[in-house]
Amino acid sequence: MNTESVSATLAGTVSFGGEISVNRLGFGSMRLTGAGIWGPPKSRSGALAVVRRAVELDVNFIDTADSYGPHVSEELIAEALYPYRAGLVIATKGGWNRPGPDQWTHDATPSHLRAAVEGSLKRLRLDRIDVYQLHVPDPRVPFEASVETLAQLRSEGKIRQVALSNVTQEHIERARRIVPIVSVQNRYSFADREWDYVVEYCQRNGIVFIPWFPLGAGRAAGEALEQIARAHGASPMQIAIAWLLKRSPVILPIPGTSSVEHLEENIAAASIQLTDEEFKKLSQAPQLAATR
After folding, report:
1. What is the rounded CA–CA span in Å between residue 141 and residue 43?
2. Pairing with 16, which of 61, 95, 163, 223 sits 20 to 30 Å away (CA)?
3. Can you point out the beta strands (E) in the chain?
4. Checking DSSP bridges between strand 96-100 and strand 89-94, what pairing results, if any?
5. pLDDT means per 10 residues in the chain (292 residues)?
């Protein structure tokens, strides 16, 4: 692969609330941590190299969360990139506790979210977080209470823009009565379109849609995906990313990896242009069974 022509700029741009514009192919940092999204990576130098290479390839949107590690991902991003280059947006999230590897427990109480924001500011070495996402609604806490806390932190200047993750359209509409919502992050790929209606809602309302697990299509890499990949001289995963980019102008894929080689392959997908026929064929492929 000729990495000289690999650039996230080839994916075009997307705007958060009309205030922040980023290239429409970002980097998800969850896989920078250890097994079970817990503890440090096997190779700290390798993780730092991936983050730095992402920025070299014109990625200017990095997604993270205080629960990744916990704290490890945010610390690695700051170690790799601080002082940050102009225009780089680091979006983080809060709303989980992490008692152990592969263990996640809800906590979107106002007190926890306030502490989470303060911790992320410190670890990321920021005075203000550009995009802060409620990681998941907490069934034990009124949803409005969680969103109102983020709205207050926005008014205090600690958050620039408020976003949501793992939500329904109803959640988005309830949140928008309290504060502008600039992005939504839900699980989504060409073979996992449970949240199609949320994508449509976001497109109608100018809200960025960030698909997590965007390479989930690999689990359903059937004949159509393989055939289209061969036609483009690309990998199935690159075609999965290209499908997302064509699916809607508000979609901002954030494929993650702990490998520089895979990172370069993912970003190279920005140059792939699917035909309408190829897009339709993939869109009609069997979907994965919905999981929660």
Report:
1. 38
2. 95
3. 13-16, 20-23, 27-28, 61-63, 89-94, 96-100, 103-106, 129-134, 159-165, 181-187, 208-212
4. unpaired
5. 81 97 98 97 98 98 98 98 98 98 98 98 98 98 98 98 98 98 95 94 98 67 84 94 97 96 97 96 73 37
CA distance 128 to 48: 23
In this prediction the pTM is: 0.95
**Would you state the pLDDT for residue 225?**
86
Among 225, 233, 235, 227, which residue's Cα sits nearest to residue 288? 225
Q: How far apart are CA 162 and CA 268, in angstroms?
A: 30
> Phi/psi zone of residue 213: left (φ > 0), alpha (ψ -120 to 50 degrees), beta?
left
pLDDT at 76: 98
Q: How far apart are CA 160 and CA 129, in angstroms?
A: 6
Reply yes or no on whether 68 is catalytic: yes
Would you put residue 219 in left (φ > 0), alpha (ψ -120 to 50) or beta?
Answer: alpha
The distance of Cα 20 from the centroid of its chain, to the nearest Å, equals: 16
- Fill in the DSSP letter of residue 85: P
pLDDT for residue 285: 75
